[in-house]
Amino acid sequence: FAAEGPVFCSGHDLKELSTEDDVKHHSQVFELCAEVMTLIQKLPVPVIAKVNGLATAAGCQLVASCDIAVASEKSQFATPGVNIGLFCSTPGVALGRSLPRKVALEMLFTGEPLSAHEALMHGLVSKVVPEDKLEEETMKISQKICDSSKSVLALGKATFYRQITQDLDTAYKITTKVMVDNLTLRDGQEGIEAFVQKRKPVWTH
C-alpha cells in the first residue's frame, strides 16, 4: 500500500459519519473497514505498507494491519479521534496487537502522534529510511520476498497469524504440525535439496 501526496491515509471521511445517515449506514462503513483490515492478514501473500507522510485513525490502523511497514523519516502516526469526540475503537484493535498496551493507550487517549522513529522503536513499523530511499528499500524487501516459494510463504503467513493468539503450548503444537506439513510440499523438499547441493532452488511458481 502506498499513497501520493503528504498524507498516507487519514482514515474515514467524516462526512460519511454525520447524523444525517442512519445507524445501518454507519455499521456498513465500519464493518467494511474491519473486513479490509482482516483480509490483509488472510491474503496468502505478504502485504507491505510504504508510508510517506501522515497516517491517522483508520490510516494508522491500516499500517498496523499490514505484515510489514516501511516508513520515511517524515511519517507520523496518530489516532486523534478522541479529540473530535469519536474514540478510535476499531483502530485500537490493530494498534493493541502491534504496540505495547501503554503506548497504544496513550495514542488512543491523547491523539498525539508518534514520529517515525518512535513508531519503529515501539514496533508499529519495520523500518525507517530517508524519504529518497523509501521506494528503493520497499522494493528491496519486496524482491527478497518474491525470491521465496509462494506456497511456503502462504503457509508461513497463515500459520503465524493462527499461532500468535494462542498460548505457548498450543502455538508449538500448531507450528510443529505445520513444519511437518511444510516438508511434504514440493518446494519444501526442493529448498532442502538445493541447500545441500549448494545451488539456487527452483520453485514451483
From TrEMBL:
<dbReference type="InterPro" id="IPR052377">
    <property type="entry name" value="Mitochondrial_ECH-domain"/>
</dbReference>
<protein>
    <recommendedName>
        <fullName>Enoyl-CoA hydratase domain-containing protein 3, mitochondrial</fullName>
    </recommendedName>
</protein>
<keyword id="KW-0809">Transit peptide</keyword>
<keyword id="KW-0443">Lipid metabolism</keyword>
<dbReference type="GO" id="GO:0006631">
    <property type="term" value="P:fatty acid metabolic process"/>
</dbReference>
<dbReference type="GO" id="GO:0016836">
    <property type="term" value="F:hydro-lyase activity"/>
</dbReference>
<dbReference type="InterPro" id="IPR001753">
    <property type="entry name" value="Enoyl-CoA_hydra/iso"/>
</dbReference>
<dbReference type="InterPro" id="IPR014748">
    <property type="entry name" value="Enoyl-CoA_hydra_C"/>
</dbReference>
<dbReference type="Pfam" id="PF00378">
    <property type="entry name" value="ECH_1"/>
</dbReference>
<dbReference type="GO" id="GO:0005739">
    <property type="term" value="C:mitochondrion"/>
</dbReference>
<keyword id="KW-0496">Mitochondrion</keyword>
<comment type="function">
    <text>May play a role in fatty acid biosynthesis and insulin sensitivity.</text>
</comment>
<keyword id="KW-0276">Fatty acid metabolism</keyword>
<dbReference type="InterPro" id="IPR029045">
    <property type="entry name" value="ClpP/crotonase-like_dom_sf"/>
</dbReference>
<comment type="similarity">
    <text>Belongs to the enoyl-CoA hydratase/isomerase family.</text>
</comment>
